[in-house]
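From the methods appendix. Each design record in this collection lists the tokenized structure first, followed by the designed amino acid sequence. Records were kept in a plain field format so they could be parsed without special tools. The example shown here is representative of the layout used throughout.

RECORD:
FOLD TOKENS (132 positions):
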């Protein structure tokens, strides 16, 4: 029990340690919507054994909530930036964006489907999206 607890906090500390590297990559702005507010690290599945900058994004609170919440509908109007970030060359940004688009599509959001239909994904990236 205690061991699991330590591992949990150990991982959380490792994830937070990514923040420094990520904020250089993100230029201190949310990697999804571009907001400059308080930012936090969110891991993007599939989770590697050790926290990794290629499986994490630095995002603002509303974007973090959209990524981590599994209940309720997404705020589609707020997520229009996905039209751009779905094409990001930063892998975890693209993974996070495509997953959000798929959720929007499942919720019947028309523009999300259009973006997904026009999007070219590397087979490797597609496999990662599916694996999450
Ligand atoms: Zn954001």
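DESIGN:
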């Amino acid at each position: 029990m205690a061991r699991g607890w330590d591992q949990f906090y150990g991982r959380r500390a490792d994830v937070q340690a990514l923040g420094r590297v990520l904020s250089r990559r993100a230029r201190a702005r949310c990697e999804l919507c571009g907001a400059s507010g308080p930012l936090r690290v969110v891991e993007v599945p599939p989770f590697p054994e050790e926290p990794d900058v290629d499986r994490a994004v630095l995002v603002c609170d509303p974007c973090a909530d959209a990524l981590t919440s599994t209940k309720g509908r997404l705020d589609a109007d707020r997520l229009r930036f996905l039209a751009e970030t779905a094409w990001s060359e930063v892998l975890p940004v693209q993974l996070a964006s495509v997953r959000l688009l798929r959720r929007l599509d499942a919720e019947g959001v028309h523009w999300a489907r259009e973006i997904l239909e026009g999007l070219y994904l590397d087979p490797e990236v597609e496999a990662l999206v599916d694996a999450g």
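APPENDIX NOTE: Residues 2-26 form the longest helix (25 residues).
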